[in-house]
Amino acid sequence: MRIDCKHVWEHISAYIDGEVDAELRAEIDKHLETCEICCAVLDSTRNVVVLLADNRVFELPAGFSARLHERLDEELALREGS
Amino acid sequence: MTRPSNPENEAACIRRILAGEKRLFHELIRPCERPIYFLLLSLLRNEAEAEDAAQETVIKVYRNLHLFRGDSQFRTWVLSIARNEGLGRLRKNDNRREDSLDALTDGESGDFTPAVLTSWREIPAEALEREELGALLRKAIEGLPAIYRNVVLLRDIEEMDGRETAAALGITEGAVKVRLHRARALLQRELTPKLKRFAPKGRKLFGWAR
Ligand SMILES: [Zn+2]
To answer: Other CB atoms closer than 10 Å to residue A5's CB: what's the count?
Structure first.
C-alpha cells in the first residue's frame, strides 16, 4: 500500500530521530523518492533542528557563570563557618 | 551543547564533596548550567528572573546533595529541582497563569501540518554568524506554547534524549515525542518562509549576475 503525504508528515519527527521501525522507514523512503513536497518538508524540518542545536542560537547571558559561582562561593563559605 | 559527564566520575565527585571537598561542587555543576538556565528561561520568560532562579536552584542542589540517590542521572535530578523552582515562582505570580504548564494539554486541537514547499535549499550553520538569524530562531522558540517550548528546548537545543527530557519535565516519553513532533512542525511552518533568505546564493544566480 502506498502511503500518502499526510502519513509521512505525521512521522517526520520520529523519522529524523531514527525512531521509526524498519518497515515504516522503508515506506517513507519509497515515498520520498517520488515526492518533492515531502522531501522539502523533511529537509526544511531537519535544517531547523540542526540550526537550533548550535550553541550560538541560545547563549548564556554575559557573566552568568561568573555570578553563579560567586554566589556559590558565598554559600560554601557560609557552610564552612557554621 | 551539554554532555553528561561520566556517571562514575560524577558519583566519585559527589562522595568527595560530601566528605568535605566542597570546592569540587563548582566542577560538578558546571555541565548543568546551560540546561538549568534555559529550562528556567523557558518557564519564566524573563532573563533576570531565570538567572535568579538558576542561582537558587544551584544552591538547593548543593544543600540537598546528600539526598541524591544515583538512581537517575545527576543532571536529570538537577533539572527536576530547577523545574520545581520555576513552577513555584510561576505559582506565586498570578498574572502569568495563562501561560502556566496546566493551561495546555496534549489534546488533538491545533493545526500541526507543516508548511508545504517543493524545494529546500539548506541553510548552513555558518549563516548563524549573522545575528539576525539567531534572533529569528529565538523569537520562534519564544512564540511556542509553553509545553512545546520546554520540550524543544531540552531535546533540540540542549540535545538531551527523550528519556532524560521526560524525567526532567515529569512527563512520559510518549508525551515528549508528541510535543516534540508538534513543536517541530510549528517551527517549520513559522520559520521556513523567513529562513529562505539566509540560504547561500546558488550557481544559477551567479550566472544571472554576470
Ligand atoms: Zn509526499
So the answer is: 15
